[in-house]
Amino acid sequence: MTPDQMEARIVRYGDLRPCKTAFIDAHTPGSDRKENFTIIGGGVSEAADQHVHIRETPGFNIGAAGQPPGCRNSLHSHRTAEVFFVLKGRWRFFWGRWGTAGEFIAEEGDIFNIPTGIFRAFENVGTDYGMIMAILGGDDAGGGVIWAPQVITDAKDYGLVLGENGRLYDTKKGQHLPDGVKPMPLLTEEELKAFPEPTTAEVIPNHVARYWDLMALSDRQPCKVIGATGVLRDRPGFEVEFLSRNSIPDTPYKFDRHEVLMPMRGHWRLTWASGRTVLNPGDTAAIPPGLDHSLAPSMTGESSLYRVIATDDPAGPTGRLL
Fold it and tell me: How far apart are CA 262 and CA 82, in angstroms?
């Protein structure tokens, strides 16, 4: 693989292209300043103009959300796994039908494997622009977003209508539902009963891992964060590992399946037979199966990285309350 071919498989943080109208709450006050990024795979964006950096999916999708202080993403659910880690800032995650069932504050580097089937939302409660990185299960990320009914209702007051085809239409721009396409129906009260309302005490022990705990656990070997034997035990169609400075030797290795590298802190030297490059915080690198390569911090100081590896587990409902 030539350096140019490898570079085509790396999405640099500085090259990320945002979409500001990716979802139905894009005009709703409090949510109207957020930016969404689709890095690997089509994700779950509802906007036709969402830029996709790498379309080939490794069995899961990678995305990101960037938000200024005070900006929130509205209550929604997914049919497959949704995992976030905080790249920058301080974030409040909250969940439940009305967002009042539970909550916690995530700091930089913390990771949250959200239980499938609950309504969840998040907001930047820090003082600067924040960024969270997302891993979504399945090649099609579960087919889309399930919104809490009030989110769809509120959005209509600000001109956005979601079609049952999963696409957004902005009536303020003269857009209307195409012939034969009905609005996305609201969930009924009976359907809403199927969405759990777990408490904070039920969620945090089995679904949240803190950055500094992972740094300690990864001192001599990679720390399995999400997996059948992970700190957070789950099988969502991928595994997540956490690496720090002393986790792996600077010798070649390879996997027989897709691997995605997502640096959190420090600069990481990626080397393969015909080249080398440096991965920086916020970059995303898609390593193809069977490629011999090595990975090591390129400078002194704090270094950490999340590694996502495809598995043969089906990307169905996961992240169950354990």
Answer: 16
